Amino acid sequence: xxxxxxxxxANHRAVAGDNxxxxxxxxxxxxxxxxxxxCIDPRLNPLFPNAxxxxxxxxxxxxxxxxxxxxxxxxxxxxxxxACAVKGGREIAIIGHTDCQVAKTTxxxxxxxxxxxxxxxxxxxxxxxxxxxxxxxxxxxxxKACDFARTSPLIGPKIPVHGLMIDVATGKLDWVVNGYExxxxxxxxQMPATQFASIGDLGSCKDFEMGEMKFPEMxxxxxxxxxxxxxxxxxxxxxxxxxxxxxxxxxxxxVPPPIxxxxxxxxxxxxxxxRR
Length: 276
Ligand SMILES: [Zn+2]
Hints:
By secondary structure, the chain is α/β, with parallel strands linked by helices. The protein has helices at 3-15, 75-85, 101-104, 107-116, 128-132, 138-151, 185-188, 191-194, 221-224, and strands at residues 34-38, 59-63, 91-97, 161-166, 173-177.
């Protein structure tokens, strides 16, 4: 059983009231630490990393409003890449949540709220929805974010990219995208043709001054430059390295007490300890 399969199994058993449900991180040492991208919603604060049954030191937490990824080279994607390369993250989970306010905010509502804050329409790009990456479906947003992360040339093919959804009322986790299934070499073989496709996503914002999106510091800038029509100069890793790092199959649950998911929080979650 892979790490996130064990996490979800333990989470479901814990939500169902099984007090013995848990995870031995030592059994999954080769898959840790994990990187999670979640929304900024404060209701998630007490849920992580408890709901994953992971110790805090094995949990690298990235957050942005709506757990949105806007492209294969976006700022968030770059953070994910650095989290893997610099902090040693082994697996990525993009975890959406139920009742996300970003999903409930239409473009019209967003424009009104920004205007109330002194941000005029003229200061924003034409396609506000594309620009912010707003969405109407939490699940579709997670799927889209996984696609961007999975096809990013900045994130190696050895890193599984999972999509999950967490219920903010119960802490229950569910699969949206099983990253272990998305790793086969035939997926990777398509990367050379598609890896820079999302540069085109910037098209809708190209008239908008946004220095952040010009990739000035990137060595792959020549390939990424919108004015370059040449094929990408960066050759992706060959598919032959497209294997998962060795994953331990947990044997007997051994000595240390399991880390138990504590996903069940009462409605007044703020300052209450997890319910046992
Ligand atoms: Zn949210």
